[in-house]
Structure formats: structure tokens, C-alpha cells
Design brief:
Blueprint: E1 4-5, E2 15-16, H1 19-28, E3 35-41, E4 54-59, E5 64-67, H2 76-81, E6 86-89, H3 92-99, E7 109-111, H4 112-118, H5 126-134, E8 137-138, H6 154-165, H7 167-180, H8 184-196, H9 219-239, H10 243-246, H11 249-257, H12 263-267, H13 275-278, H14 281-292, H15 314-320, H16 322-341, H17 346-349, H18 352-361, H19 368-374, H20 379-401
Parallel strand pairs: 1-8, 2-5, 3-6, 6-7
Antiparallel strand pairs: 3-4, 4-5
Helix pairs in contact: 4-7, 5-7, 9-11, 9-14, 15-16, 16-18, 16-20, 18-19, 19-20
């Protein structure tokens, strides 16, 4: 069994958090090589904004550096220094989103987790893949730290450095495996898709999507859900803490579904036993009273009914359109079987949303291609599944029209 590593091969790396250190770093990255590994440490669930509080980088021809985006909020010069390199990340999407806060924008990507999924690795966490591919076991003893704190302990920095220490080497081996398997083109399309879809459109009604929010039926309940949500956001932003630390989602929804009739009843709710949550008791009561006084015109209406392709439950499809539900099952089975036969994660064979798009709206031969394009299926996925879907859909439509 491999011995667990707790610090990089060259020893502990100091934090780069002064302008002079940053200038030195830029000189070292004048030619970082074909690949530059990146990772971030965030304070998810602790701070309001999910941005990077530490950025780790290691060039193929440049040393490992730990950059402090609190002291150095504009790292666009570093991004420019790495513009001709392929950026290597593991599970890149969230890291790329929060790196943009500091001016870092990837020109080219190699995602080692996507590569592992396309190659059929059973366990695809960074530690598991690194150990399986390189025989190196990385310590994972500081995964839940509050990285917004300063100063950062050296043991934390050592842990963070290990996340990029072997990442370029890992990418090089995985690339060879993808090429040997004939799947490098697939991977390149997946990497491009990640870069194209980093910036997701803003959610116009985020309060509707809280877990359990669908149980709120009346306009008054929906109004309370909306007002509690936005009041919580205001408090969380002002204090720079995660909204769930102001009022957990489950307790917010519970206030909506079982609204207290008095301030005393509110103060006796179980979550009020926690001092951190109790401090806002009067504020929540004010919101409840406010919603009670809103007119019907000021209350939100029910959300528009989901279109068929947006519904994830086959049981619900059965109630709406049993024939389409059967087609959904058949198409899902095709993808599952192909993924199993080719040892690839099913979600990377074809997304469930793409399968639903075809099952919901296929009408005539040749219809699969535009439907998969609407669902953002990549070219390699369309090449594989269009002929299979067309054959199944054609047989299905003949069966239901007999």
C-alpha cells in the first residue's frame, strides 16, 4: 500500500501574498510549459459568495505556487502568463467559476475527473484517481476547513499544495489512456463544453427551487417563501456568511408550511435553540406579519407547469403520457446498456435531460439529431446514439399507431 503524502516533494510551500512575491512568481511563469495545474480552496457553506480563498498552481516547467486572492485580488497577469498552456483541473466547473473572481480564465482545459469518467474509473475523486494511476496516495485531512481565515496554517497549505503537485503528471497519463482507447476526441469535446457553459444564466426565482418548496401551494405560502428567502439573502450578504447559517433551508420551508401564529410560537421552534439562529427571530416574525398584509395582487402565482422533458420522474410521465414514458424507458435502457458495454459512466454517455428531450418530442425519422442538439449533446454522443434512437423511436411510433 502506498504511503500517504502530507506535503509536496520539495517541501512546504509558502503563501504568495505580497506584490513583490507575486512579481517573482510572474517571472517564474514566463514559460510555464504545455500544462499548468490549478486548484482552489473555497469556504462553501461558510461565506456568502462561493469564491476562491486560495489558488494553487503548478506549471509543467514552473514551480508550485500558492496564491492568496484576498491579498492579490487581481491575478489577470498570472492568467495572461498561462494563456498558451492547457489548464489542468479536477472537476473543473466550480473551480473555474470561482477563479473568475480573481481574473483567472482558462484558455484550454484538461479535466482529469472527466477523463477518468470517460475511461470508466469506478472512483473518480482526485485522491482515488491519483493513487490508481500514479500509485501516489494524497492526504485528505483538511477538506472542510474555513479557507477564508487568515493566517492559514502551514499544514493546510501543504494539503492544498498536494492537490496540484501531481496533477500535470496525472493528466499526461490519462491523455495517453484516452488516446489508446480512441476517446481523446470525446474528451476534447467535453472539455470545450465545460468552458462554454461555465457561466450559467441567473435564476429568476431561486426561492422556488429550495428542497421541499414544491409543497408550498397557496399564494400566501409562496409569498412567505419568497420573502423569507430574500430577507435571508440580505442578512447573509451583509454578514458575509452562507444563507444556510442564517436560516437552514429545511427550517425556512418549515416556517412556510407550518407558519407560526404568534411570536411566542415562532420562538419555540426547535431551530431557535441555536443562538446563532435565534438572533433573527424578530426579523422572521416581521416577515411573516408583512406577508399576512400583502394583497392577492402582491402575492406570487404558482410556477408554470413543467414541460414533459423537464420532469425527471418516469412515474409522473406515466400519468401524463404512458406511451412517451415507455419510449423514455427504452431510450434510457439503450444508453445504460451502451455505457455498461463500453465501461463509461452513464452520465457521460448521454445526459438524462438529453434522453428526455428525445422521448418527449420525437415525431418523425430524423428528429433525434435536432432534439439532441437542443439538449446540448456533443457531436460524439450524437454520432453514437442518433442511429440507435432513430431505430427505437421508429419501432415505437409504429407500435402505438397500430
Amino acid at each position: 500500500m502506498s504511503e500517504t503524502l502530507y506535503r509536496p516533494r520539495q517541501g512546504s510551500i509558502p503563501l504568495t501574498d505580497t506584490k513583490q512575491q507575486y512579481r517573482d512568481c510572474l517571472r517564474e511563469y514566463h514559460d510555464p510549459g504545455q500544462y499548468v495545474a490549478f486548484d482552489t480552496e473555497r469556504a462553501s457553506g461558510i461565506r456568502y459568495q462561493d469564491k476562491a480563498y486560495l489558488i494553487q498552481a503548478k506549471g509543467q516547467s514552473a514551480p508550485l505556487v500558492l496564491l492568496d486572492p484576498l491579498a492579490l485580488p487581481d491575478l489577470s497577469d498570472f492568467s495572461l502568463a498561462c494563456k498558451n498552456s492547457t489548464w489542468v483541473l479536477h472537476a473543473a466547473r466550480e473551480d473555474l467559476q470561482c477563479m473568475e473572481w480573481a481574473g483567472l480564465r482558462a484558455p484550454h482545459l484538461f479535466d482529469t475527473q472527466i477523463a477518468a469518467k470517460l475511461l470508466g474509473y469506478e472512483h473518480v475523486g482526485l485522491g482515488a484517481v491519483t493513487e490508481q494511476v500514479l500509485g501516489v496516495k494524497l492526504a485528505k485531512n483538511h477538506t472542510r476547513e474555513n479557507w477564508s481565515l487568515r493566517p492559514l496554517k502551514q499544514s493546510w497549505l501543504d494539503y492544498a499544495a498536494l492537490d496540484v503537485e501531481y496533477l500535470v503528471e496525472l493528466a499526461i497519463v490519462l491523455k495517453k489512456q484516452l488516446e489508446a482507447a480512441g476517446r481523446m476526441t470525446w474528451a476534447e469535446q467535453e472539455f470545450s463544453y465545460v468552458l462554454e457553459t461555465i457561466r450559467r444564466p441567473a435564476d429568476t426565482d431561486p426561492w422556488r427551487h429550495l428542497k421541499g418548496a414544491g409543497k408550498a401551494k397557496s399564494p400566501r405560502q409562496l409569498g412567505l417563501l419568497r420573502e423569507l428567502y430574500y430577507q435571508r439573502e440580505q442578512v447573509a450578504k451583509g454578514r458575509d456568511i452562507s444563507p444556510s447559517r442564517v436560516l437552514p433551508n429545511s427550517d425556512l420551508v418549515d416556517l412556510v408550511l407550518q407558519t407560526p401564529r404568534s411570536y411566542q410560537e415562532l420562538s419555540q421552534r426547535p431551530f431557535m435553540k441555536r443562538r446563532q439562529l435565534r438572533r433573527n427571530c424578530r426579523l422572521w416574525w416581521q416577515v411573516i406579519k408583512k406577508v399576512q398584509d400583502l394583497t392577492s395582487e402582491q402575492l406570487p402565482s404558482k410556477a408554470p407547469q413543467h414541460k414533459l422533458h423537464e420532469i425527471t420522474s418516469i412515474a409522473t410521465w406515466e400519468k401524463i403520457d404512458p406511451a412517451r414514458a415507455e419510449l423514455y424507458r427504452q431510450l434510457k435502457g439503450i444508453v445504460s446498456t451502451w455505457a455498461q458495454e463500453n465501461q463509461i459512466w452513464a452520465e457521460f454517455a448521454l445526459s438524462p435531460s438529453a434522453i428526455r428531450q428525445v422521448a418527449a418530442y420525437w415525431e418523425t425519422r430524423g428528429n433525434s439529431t435536432p432534439l439532441l442538439e437542443v439538449a446540448k449533446a456533443r457531436a460524439w454522443q450524437r454520432d453514437i446514439f442518433v442511429p440507435r434512437f432513430e431505430d427505437t423511436c421508429t419501432k415505437w411510433v409504429k407500435k402505438i399507431t397500430i
